[in-house]
Amino acid sequence: MKLFATRVWGFGFKRLPLATFGVKGHVDRLLRMAGRGDRLVLVGTQTERTAEEHQGRILGMAEIGFEPLRTLDLVDRGQLDERDFDERGNFKFPYAVATTRVWQFEPAPVLTQTLSRQLTMVATSGVEEIIDFADVAAIMALNAVEIELPVLPALERMRRLNYALRNTTGPRPTDASYHVNRSATEGESWTYGLRFGKRDVWKIGWADDIDERCASVNQHIPIELGGLEQWDVGFHQRMKNRDAAYKMEQRVLTLLDSKRKGFERVHCTHAELQSVWTQAFLDVIRGD
User: Which domain of life does the UniProt lineage start with (predicted)?
Assistant: First the structure.
């Protein structure tokens, strides 16, 4: 998963579900670099137009649509801030992408106290990829509350498409991907549930080697958490091949959809996951 940052004057997505830009190239660049499931991180500018309590803070993040849009094709001038028009009446931010899902961070942390470095000027008018693994992990560890977006009929098809194609746990295993080593339908694999410390936070996935996968995940725990907790294997189920392990992973996530907090993570009790785990295994071996 990739994160891209951009600076904003506020958090107005409850009113207009769009991320707007002044130059078409910024939209084109974002859509060229991003994939399904990648997110746009929204950081308050340190200018007087941004509310003082939002300046320099990471306000939230958004999942975006994958079609370039024209802002004025979707909203009326009356819905826009008059400060965003020049003296000739031309709108300064005519290019946009839809925000199909938006999360607000509560509380909104100071960027320089959360990430390893300040954003560059690229993020002021366009987008900047956050490439440090620890920085990505720090953002994903923040308390994110999904907000309800207003309905724009022109964007509903895009939202449904994003939901269907969202890349939540990586690609499904295929014979083409593994023809050098082994087929996705040959050799056993494992479905796992990793627990973060003693918290009711779980990471669901599949792997050929659970211990190796767990060690890899633990390399990216945010340093802000002090290293006192880490991911440990709480559940594991041997499956006959990679395809079956993937199917069980997906079944667990489907059964816990209401408790998902982003990508392959779920927030639930041990007992709740135990019940779902058993049901998912039975569903897969029965071919449901």
Answer: Bacteria
